[in-house]
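Now for a specimen:

…
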Amino acid sequence: MQIKGIGYDRTHGARRDQDNTGRGYQPTDGYDDGAVRNLTGELTDLDGHTYIDEREGAILNEMADLLGNHKLVPFFGAGISRPQLGFASAGLAKQLADQIGQRPSILLSELSDSFIDKIGEDALIGFLKEKLVLSQFDDAKVSAHRLLLSLSLNLLYMTNQDNLFELVAEHYCRPYRRVVTLADLSDVIPGEPILIKFHGDPDVPSSIVFGKRSYEARIKSNDHPLDIKLRAASYVG
């Protein structure tokens, strides 16, 4: 999907054509003939161009500038892995609830704490490994991961505990150094691409931030070593 413009400027009666050529304004009475809104509410024309409003365009321009100056840190979460994993937080909550005989209507974070209280933390780590750690992937279901990889950034933050980004990066011969602990951070070679797993990884059980208690502990930690990179850069979550 090509993003061609910044929508219809109702004040000036012009469409800003700021595509890759940066050609500026083109007078118009409104959106192009045949423009319709797709299922996500985006306005598209018959050629598949997508129009966005001026505010969104300004945000995208700012993001592009930050990316160009290596001052933007993509901060992504579980939503990008849903196509491959086949479930979101609600689905994961139901599976947890089924194992401890509890209703899945409560928050996943609270349900995770109940799971630990009833079965133990080791059981939760085992559950996460079973559901989130994969040995292979379907390339058609990891488009977001491939897009992130194509940006060729040296620093990425993720809250996911799955290993999909690592698998995709390895598959395309563009591996990232996975950073979960302070020891991992100290092992980073200057210039090496870094993937900071902000909420931990099942391979390091003590690093996992999943239940409400672990979230609260993480938030209260003002000097956590994995925060250091965020203090020097703007990020988009």
